[in-house]
Amino acid sequence: MSQSKTKTKPHPSDEEIVELYFARDEQAIAETDRKYGKVCMQVSMNIVESRPDAEECVSDGYLKTWHSIPPTRPASLCAFVCRIVRNLSINRLRDMKAERRNRDLTLSFEELESCISVDESHADVLPGLISAFLESLEETDRKLFMGRYFHATPVKDLAKIHDLTPNAVSLRLHKTRERLRLHLEEGGYTV
Q1: Distances from the Cα of 26 to the Cα of 14, 66, 84, 150, angstroms
Q2: Do 50 and 91 belong together in one domain?
Q3: What would the mean pLDDT of 162-178 be, rounded to a whole number?
Q4: Which of 100, 121, 140 finishes a domain?
Q5: CA distances from 60 to 5, 88, 91, 156 (A)
Q6: pTM (predicted TM-score)
Q7: 4 is a domain residue
Q8: What does the pLDDT read at residue 105?
Q9: C-alpha to C-alpha distance for 145 and 125, rounded to whole angstroms
């Protein structure tokens, strides 16, 4: 009884793949992926922790490699490609965090709209009214308010910091916004 063994095609050397890049042969990308695709995915996954984002970073990495070779002739193709993928992944992670932070900032501003409006006629009194209000708050409520509305910290993160549940944080913030609205109305500021 004979067993049929499937032989996999041996990987070309780095030098052979680099020569494909220099010849502008698209097979260079396919060979790079076949030889270093798994390690590139692992590098990216360790940073972005999302398979679709990692796949996009690896794909963009191959394109950037295509545009970099020539003129560059890397001593180690693996290190060269992995560095490109790593840098693209770090940039992707920064973009994702900035997007998340912008979303949190937008949400926190929307929450405040119920008691504060952007009105130029009150611009001179509003800071003083808010400062006086903040000074009147219990320390935890002041920290929650500042964390949420000045630092755009997500509610779940505030809950962890202050050893509260997210629901408790949301409720305290809601009550604080209501107290702020009343404080501002007493000070002559209306929404």
Answers
A1: 15, 9, 18, 51
A2: yes
A3: 95
A4: 100
A5: 35, 8, 12, 33
A6: 0.56
A7: no
A8: 65
A9: 20
- For residues 22 and 64, state if they share a domain: yes
Confidence tier at 100 by pLDDT (50, 70, 90): confident
Distance between CA 149 and CA 51 in Å, rounded? 33
Q: Under the phi-then-psi rule, with left for phi > 0, alpha for psi from -120 to 50, and beta for the rest, what region is 163?
A: left
CATH number at residue 86: 1.10.1740.10
Give 66-89 pLDDT, tens digit per residue: 999 999 999 999 999 999 999 999
Task: Tell me the pLDDT tens digit for each residue of 137-163.
Answer: 999 999 999 888 877 788 999 999 999
Same domain (yes/no): 24, 93: yes
Considering 65, 100, 135, which residue would you say is the last residue of a domain? 100
**Beta strand extents in the chain (DSSP E only):** none
Considering the domain architecture, whether residues 121 and 178 belong to the same structural domain is answered as: yes
Provide mean pLDDT across the span 153-178.
Answer: 93
Q: Identify how many contiguous H helices and E strands the chain contains and give both numbers.
A: 8, 0
Residue 122 lies in a domain: yes
d(CA 114, CA 180): 10
